[in-house]
Amino acid sequence: MSKRAVLEVIALDVADAVAAQAGGADRLELVTEMAADGLTPATATVAGIRAAVDIDLRVMLRLSDGFAAGAAEDVAALVRAAGELREAGADQFVLGFLDADGAVDLAAVERVVAALDGCAWTFHRAIDHAADRDALRKQLADLPGLDAYLTAGAAAGVDEGLPTLVAEAGRRGEPGYDQTVLVGGGLRLEHVRPLRNAGIDAFHIGGAARSAGWAGPVSEEAVREWRRVVDGE
User: Which residue ranges run through the membrane (predicted)?
Assistant: First the structure.
């Protein structure tokens, strides 16, 4: 466990961001509307957070609940949002779209990624709802900027997906498996050690960083506890 693990925390506003950084987060995922599992935040929010903290930020590109990109005009709106967010200081992103059959919506993903112009990005938990995870990874393997998959290993969460996460971590170096496995979705502290023992070194928390759950703000103390555990202390 010599390599420092990445700890990414969901932030909704400046106060969340400041508390997460103080607790030891390496990176933030910026979203709004957690009732819809996280949508694209306002550019003003992103700019405010960028001014308040100096750790990496990944900004969600998702305009509605679910994993469909929508019609052509919806994809165009995502492209515009990406441009506006980049002007606000965003240089890392989170996205992922599936079609009605559970395959990756490659046309939509490629169009949005083109607007990022090489920025780093995470393919989010849409992978956990895909009909074929392996096929999805191989289709996306060569897209510029893709460096992580946010995944629980299963739609139901890490409890069910742990064997898949361990297996995929073991395939690093194979086509489609060079990206970081960023574990999130029902992640609990007791999952960390077996995941780290499998070589996984990136973790994502949302409600677990909040002492009062989503009803309250990010807790610096909660993040600090996660930092301690992911560091193997």
Answer: none
